[in-house]
Amino acid sequence: MDILYSILIDPFMQMVELPDFFLQVLWEGFVAGVLYALIALGFVLIFKASGVFNFAQGIMVVFAGLTLVGLHEKGVPAYLALILTIGVMGLLALGVERFVMRPLVNQPEIILLMSTIGLTYFLIGFGEFIFGGEPKQMITEELGLPTGSTAFEIGDGGLLILQHIDIAAAVIALIMVGALAVFFNKTRIGRALRAVADDHQAALSVGISLHQIWAIVWFAAGIVALTTGIMWGARSDVSFALEIIALKALPVLILGGFTSIPGAIVGGLIIGIGEKIGEIYWGPLVGGGIESWLAYMIALIFLLFRPQGLFGERIIERV
């Protein structure tokens, strides 16, 4: 009975007894979830255009952040370094389209996936060669991002502490999510992206330039990666460890659906809030560490019962 009480009742009693702490946990989970959703958007962009999971999106987050900080360390002013980093991500998009995607048109999806894995290790080696392997501090104040925190009283003496950088991260991420949703659904290029994802040959037959679309979508994914690198780097450091955090987008995509922007948002919030609550209230029962594996357990359950995700399309093939 004591075990059942500890699992099924005591965590909820703690939430009720300390509502201010529970709200703090919810806020931390919300911010993490929004950033997970932002990472997942980069994967959604590539998947919509090529039908393949872009394994390199995680290292693109790291590479973009390191480029920004590295340029500033060389004496480049912060905003000029930001513009130059955007240019670097544009060159990366053109290079990927020309030397990776273009030779693999109409190849099996597994070939495209393997090419993104190869790109991952290329960027790791190139990034370490140029910037070194040591963690770097994000240039938060130089970019005009807010610092400090604000405390709000909750109930009788309780406090909810909001870090200003977390508020900025949530707002910027939500703005980018909304902009990408409009881009996909309301613009000609967005419709062309969906057409390319459905059938490369059919898209080519109606005059859609496959090479142009792929360059655009990889550049957009690079901008998402840069934004994510800045936000995550501002909350911690810019290092190659961020690649592991970026792979949390995989369970987010499984929950929301690989082609759905709303799914990326909902999936990110479920994962972000779920792992924070699990770590704080149920983590002590298993010695901690829930935050590192809970997302993948949730994804496994979804794969068993709803493999297309909450917002994904069920694909039925006649055999």
Give your account of this protein's structure.
With 319 residues, the protein is mainly alpha-helical. The protein has one domain (20-243). Helices cover 71% and strands 4% of the residues. It has helices spanning 2-8, 10-17, 19-50, 57-73, 78-101, 109-131, 164-186, 188-198, 200-205, 210-235, 242-246, 249-256, 261-282, 290-305, and strands at residues 149-154, 158-163. It is globular and about 65 Å long. The model has no long low-confidence stretch (mean pLDDT 84). Keywords: Amino-acid transport, Cell membrane, Membrane, Transmembrane, Transmembrane helix, Transport. Belongs to the binding-protein-dependent transport system permease family. LivHM subfamily. It comes from Hoeflea algicola.
